Amino acid sequence: KKTYWGIFVNQINGYRWPYDVFDRRWDPDYGKYGTPKKTSLNVTENSQPSFGLPMPVMQTAAYSKEIVITWPGGVDHSYYLFLDFADVLLPSHANSRQMEVRLNGQNWNSTPVYYCRSTVLYSRAATTDSQYSFSIRSANPSDEGAVLNSFEVYQVLQLTGYKTHPEDGLLSLLFLIPFL
């Protein structure tokens, strides 16, 4: 299964350690989500908590009128989504642009996107749907359109049958695994 997707320009292989301090594997999308663009400037991580996004991942982005990410779900499957944004092209009219994100046609979230500064949108709770379709659009249709540097999808696994020492109390093991 794929783990994390980045938009890499002229890159055949993905990135891992030492670029990613959490040793996530970032695979290129080969233009699947839009036209890839790149900057040689450093992209500042602008989110708390820090997600440790690798510089080579954030220095590339896909641009399109609309960016759509889909995957099948199910009643027994729940997921967390992380969307990573930073403009790598100097915006033509403002310091920031507004991205609107929809989940299955419904408003999900929105965020400003800045030139060479990262912004991360993420699920606050795991979601369970039969199908997932996230669409990203710019709130201002006259600008460069939607932008996305990378995304991460984690499937929640409930592990059963594992017991802790009785004095430790009850423990419910929740693991997040990369999905796509």
TrEMBL record:
It is found in: Membrane. It is a single-pass membrane protein. It holds the Pfam family Malectin_like. It comes from Nymphaea colorata. Residues 14-156 form the Malectin-like domain. It comes from the Eukaryota. This is Malectin-like domain-containing protein. One of its GO terms (cellular component) is membrane.
